[in-house]
Design goal:
The protein is mainly alpha-helical. The protein contains ten helices and no strands. The N terminus is likely disordered.
Length: about 200
């Protein structure tokens, strides 16, 4: 009787495929990455990629599962109250992007978001599950608008640093980035806002 399910003797293959996929999507986005290229980078046959993950679309969805809990931002931001919230957001966000375990996933999502709705939904999900609840926790006026503007500033920063690789964003130290972004985010969170004006 023929066996079904995952092949024996390929321990670690799915992890290598996922790592190669994350690197490929980070480098080329969804449109530019190919199953053959991912298989070659993972040192497996393309058929094994299909065996584990199905289509390129299914592989992409598997590869953009975030390897961290976005809700951790809520506690990190609200614990200290409004004062210094901009710095805490900048420090937390940059820490996530500096982590070699999370950066390829996030760069792949960011690079693909303009052309793939799944990646765009993942980015929106980070806003809705992390930053918006954190801003609500600070009890600020216009929390949705403030969170959306702060999110746009962070996405722009990371797009410039990790996708466009704009200098000096690429070469400046993490502490310098935090120092530059903190007052911008703080102003977004606490400055006067008249959305109906």
């Amino acid at each position: 009787m023929a066996r079904t399910g995952r092949r024996s003797g390929v321990s670690g293959s799915s992890e290598r495929i996922l790592a190669a996929a994350r690197a490929a999507f980070a480098e080329a986005g969804f449109e530019g990455a190919t199953i053959r290229g991912i298989a070659r980078a993972a040192a497996v046959d393309p058929a094994l990629v299909h065996h584990y993950f199905g289509t390129k679309e299914q592989l992409f969805v598997a590869s953009i599962e975030l390897p961290f809990d976005p809700s951790e931002l809520v506690g990190a931001v609200t614990a200290g109250g409004v004062d210094g919230a901009g710095e805490r957001i900048a420090r937390f966000a940059l820490g996530v992007w500096l982590d070699p375990g999370t950066r390829p996933v996030l760069v792949g999502v960011l690079r693909s978001a303009a052309s793939d709705e799944r990646a765009a939904a993942t980015l929106r999900g980070l806003l809705e599950r992390a930053l918006l609840p954190a801003v609500h926790g600070l009890r600020l006026d216009h929390p949705e608008l403030r969170a959306s503007i702060a999110w746009s500033q962070l996405v722009g920063l990371f797009f410039g640093r990790y996708v466009l690789r704009v200098r000096p964003l690429v070469t400046v130290s993490p502490e310098a980035l935090v120092a530059a972004m903190a007052p911008i985010l703080q102003r977004t969170l606490t400055g006067p806002m008249r959305p109906g004006a």
